[in-house]
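Slide 14.
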Amino acid sequence: MPQENKIKLSVVIPVYNEAPYLPSLFEDLIKYFDTNDTEIIIVDDGSNDGSTEIINDFKLNKNYNFDYKTIRLDINSGKGKALRIGIKNSCGEYVLLQDADLELDMKDSLEMYQMIQANDEIKCIFGSRYLSGKLKKNNYFFNNLVGKINSLIFNIFFSQSLSDVHCGLKILRGSVVKKLNLTINDFGIEIDLASQIVRNNFFIYEFGVSYYFRTKAQGKKISWIDGIKSFYYLIKVRFFDNNISTNLSILYSSIYMAYVGSHFGMGLGNLLFIICFFIIGTIIGIKFKILSSTVIFISIYIGSFFGKGNGTSLSVLIFFIIGIFLARYLKKYFLNSKINYLF
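Slide 15: predicted structure.
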């Protein structure tokens, strides 16, 4: 008879060269999560500063009640790879993702765990450094700006309202974890994780957390290069990591919307209209498949026959809005049918 899993919470912590902070990290783990139904999974991502020895020494001390697991990667492979391996080796009903650098307060981690346990409707909670009325220390303007811009772009692409996609503190139920197929190895893992949660129709709750930033001299590893790469990952997870029907819809709708845009403005203004309508078309293609998108196109086409001059533009806009409402109705109507993939 298989042994019943006693682990309720898995805390996954990627570590790369965090020797100065590990003793305090372990103190906090014992303070907030020292129960026999908790497992702590430390993924040592190729550290070479003495972190490995500290991680192993802690295991020998046995001064704790939780189940302590360590995984060593011989080569530094990135935060995303470390998290993916840690998640894969977790077995808790809840999985808490926690950074090792102490920029985030583990007391907040415990509060998030208590919240998700108390409400069955909550499947995942993301920490947010921007919602908090708690203590905050941050003077990295560029990192802060990029984080907010990325969150804004993510919200536009996925129709969300998140304030901090990049926060490293997150807790997920096992039902969410089972749906994930994470592939990104570096800091882009936060975008990959959030996008897959949304794609699987789970609602993301946010909880304001304390934040104490580190400088480069103190070991902060994320850089402006990671900020630039994050824009690439946003494009990737939204426009390339789709099934075939969605990619066809994106191509189809972006082409006809660019064509619609070509009928507006003159010279440079005309080019700007084409680009704007093309972008709108990509978003339409994400939301609506071929048939429902065709309804929008037909509605726009009908609208082009009404009015003259600027009146035609207004008519096209009105019929475009009508087409959106019709497409949404059809999508909802055929949601549970065998041809729902076309709507």
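Speaker note: The beta strands are 9-15, 38-45, 67-73, 94-97, 124-128, 136-137, 170-173, 204-208, 211-212.
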